[in-house]
């Protein structure tokens, strides 16, 4: 599933009551930078409804791209905060190791782990390229308008979500937000 499916989790849970769900989360500043670099379906107006975003229809329609993306990210974390008991939250930084060490109700052979480690070395967006961590670069690339939008629309919800996971908000993880 994709990130916006967090809004449909109650329905999905009714259909799949025993399936373990994992909510992978990443520093939202990095996600915002990624969305501004390469807009995707997450940003298509209506993928996340105006009701899920929170602002009025007029406010939603007036949002600049950075604010619209930040409001969407905030809506994901707000819903994740409300439904935190429905899934296992996984910080992106703990991947891929978490997958083969801690995935709920799963155990993997050493050969399966080796295959997963090999797959994790590939960049999923550029199949012919090795994965290179980009967290620091993305935090540095965040523009002042992205940071303002993040602070208004995403930070309160993200901080609330982290509190449900007993994880403090660490400002240093966000560069100079």
The end-to-end distance, rounded to whole angstroms, is 29 Å
Contiguous low-pLDDT stretches (5 residues minimum) are none
CA gyration radius, whole angstroms: 17 Å
Number of helices: 9
Average pLDDT works out at 87
Number of strands: 2
Q: How much of the polypeptide forms β-strand, as a percent range?
A: under 5%
Helix/strand class: mainly alpha
Largest sheet report: 2 strands, parallel
Taken together, the total number of domains comes to 1
User: What is the succession of H and E elements?
Assistant: HEHHHHEHHHH
Give me the oligomer status.
single chain
List keywords for this structure.
177 residues; mainly alpha; two-stranded parallel ribbon; 9 helices; 5% strand
Commentary on this structure:
The protein is mainly alpha-helical and 177 residues long. The protein has one domain (21-168). The chain is 51% helix and 5% strand. α2 packs across α5 (65-82) and α2 packs across α8.
List the helices and strands and how they pair.
Blueprint: H1 9-15, E1 22-25, H2 28-37, H3 50-53, H4 57-62, H5 65-82, E2 88-91, H6 97-102, H7 110-120, H8 135-141, H9 144-164
Parallel strand pairs: 1-2
Helix pairs in contact: 2-5, 2-8, 2-9, 5-9
Short account of what is shown:
The protein has helices spanning 9-15, 28-37, 50-53, 57-62, 65-82, 97-102, 110-120, 135-141, 144-164; strands at residues 22-25, 88-91.
């Amino acid at each position: 599933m994709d990130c916006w499916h967090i809004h449909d989790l109650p329905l999905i849970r009714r259909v799949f009551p025993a399936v373990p769900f994992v909510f992978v989360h990443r520093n939202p500043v990095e996600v915002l930078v990624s969305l501004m670099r390469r807009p995707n379906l997450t940003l298509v107006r209506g993928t996340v409804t105006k009701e899920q975003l929170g602002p009025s229809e007029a406010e939603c329609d007036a949002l600049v791209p950075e604010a619209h993306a930040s409001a969407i990210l905030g809506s994901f974390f707000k819903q994740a905060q409300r439904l935190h008991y429905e899934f296992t939250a996984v910080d992106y930084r703990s991947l891929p190791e978490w997958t083969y060490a801690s995935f709920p109700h799963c155990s993997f052979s050493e050969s399966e782990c080796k295959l997963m480690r090999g797959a994790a070395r590939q960049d999923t967006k550029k199949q012919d390229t090795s994965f290179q961590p980009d967290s620091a670069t993305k935090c540095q690339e965040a523009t002042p308008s992205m940071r303002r939008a993040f602070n208004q629309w995403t930070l309160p919800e993200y901080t609330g979500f982290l509190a449900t996971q007993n994880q403090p908000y660490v400002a240093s993880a966000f560069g100079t937000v």
